[in-house]
Design a protein that fits this description.
This protein is of the alpha+beta class. It is built from nine helices and 13 strands. The strands form two sheets. Strands 1, 2, 3, 4, 5, 6, 7, 8 and 13 form a nine-stranded mixed β-sheet that branches. It binds (R)-mevalonate (MEV).
Length: about 325
């Protein structure tokens, strides 16, 4: 192949973040905000990566495990570690490659941008090198990349970027079941400027649970119960219940201590603008909110946009794909 482009979707958690760390279930969806990775042949044998949306570019060297950044100091340069590790998995013959990455997922907002980049990179580079990987293999390699780069990782993001759709996960995200949802869930995402640190937030909930086990354990059990109720509500398209369960989940996330003033402002503005439910999505402490907005997408999006960046997302039934 002279040129290959692959795309992979990002994700949003609908129910159960944080509780999922304690073996409770969660529901997450792939969203139609994607990473696009294009690989082309280069005249020399180097591998050059360009992420225009982040004004970030540089050379990666899979043999020596090195990254040489060209751009000035860039707070988003961490994404290149995922690209390097992904290329290492499927590099094949040592030929030169020009890798161009386009993102319509904001980075570091809890929307699975690094998994989407990882999955699309594995798909594009493997195809470019004439390897035919199955989706299962892509998902496995992508999980290995996250383990290598982050030290620890659940399979939520890499699973959704690979297969798309809606998933129910349990047992510390080891057990993943696709959910058949046959309607388009109308969702709006709002992103704060702050980037919560997932590791620190998970640790803060752990400490809170250690300090107040008799308070926190029932909260985690309540999240489990509402997440299981949400499966039924989503399957029945029970709009009122879906919204109420999201709002209850938000109250419990607040109790866990992962809410912020900025997230709260957006959450309540979304409800005031007609959202049936709204909550933090992901780790909190900054990052993003998700609002469920039947018939109110425009109102919620434009009102949220007056304070932070907001956009409508749809569920991406499709996962990773080679673009024609
Ligand atoms: C972060 O996106 C979701 C958390 O539940 C952490 C995790 O599951 O790894 C907060």
């Amino acid at each position: 192949f002279m040129q290959v482009t692959a795309s992979a979707p990002g994700k949003a958690i609908l129910f159960g973040e944080h509780a999922v760390v304690y073996g409770k279930p969660a529901i997450a969806v792939a969203v139609n905000k994607k990473a696009y990775v294009t690989v082309q042949k280069r005249e020399d044998e180097r591998i050059h990566v360009d992420i225009k949306d982040l004004k970030l570019s540089g050379y990666i060297d899979p043999e020596n495990n090195e990254i040489e950044i060209e751009s000035r100091e860039n707070s988003k340069k961490g994404i290149l570690n995922y690209v390097l590790s992904a290329v290492k998995m499927v590099h094949g013959s040592a030929q030169g490659m020009e890798i161009q990455i386009n993102l319509d997922i904001p980075i570091g907002a809890g929307l699975g941008s690094s998994a989407a980049v990882t999955v699309a990179t594995i798909a594009a580079v493997s195809k470019f090198n004439n390897m035919n990987l199955s989706k299962d293999e892509i998902a496995e390699y992508a999980h290995d990349v996250e383990l290598e780069v982050q030290g620890a990782a659940s399979r939520i993001d890499t699973t959704l970027s690979t297969y798309g759709g809606v998933i129910y996960l349990s047992k510390n995200a080891e057990d993943i079941v696709p959910l058949e949802i046959n309607w388009n869930i109308p969702l709006v995402i709002g992103c704060t400027q702050d980037r919560g640190n997932t590791g620190e937030l998970v640790e803060s909930v752990r400490l809170k649970r250690e300090g107040y086990p008799e308070v926190l354990n029932p909260i985690l059990n309540a999240v489990e119960a509402l997440t299981n109720d949400a499966v039924i509500s989503l399957q029945k398209k029970d709009e009122k219940k879906i919204g109420e369960l999201m709002n209850i989940n938000q109250g419990l996330l607040d109790a866990m201590g992962v809410n912020t003033t900025e997230l709260s402002r957006m959450i309540y503005l979304a409800r005031k603008s007609g959202a049936k439910g709204s909550k933090i999505t992901g780790a909190g402490g900054g990052g993003s909110i998700i609002a469920y907005c039947p018939g109110k997408i425009e109102e919620v999006t434009s009102n949220l946009n007056t304070i932070e960046k907001a956009f409508n997302v749809e569920i991406s039934k499709e996962g990773v794909r080679i673009e024609v």
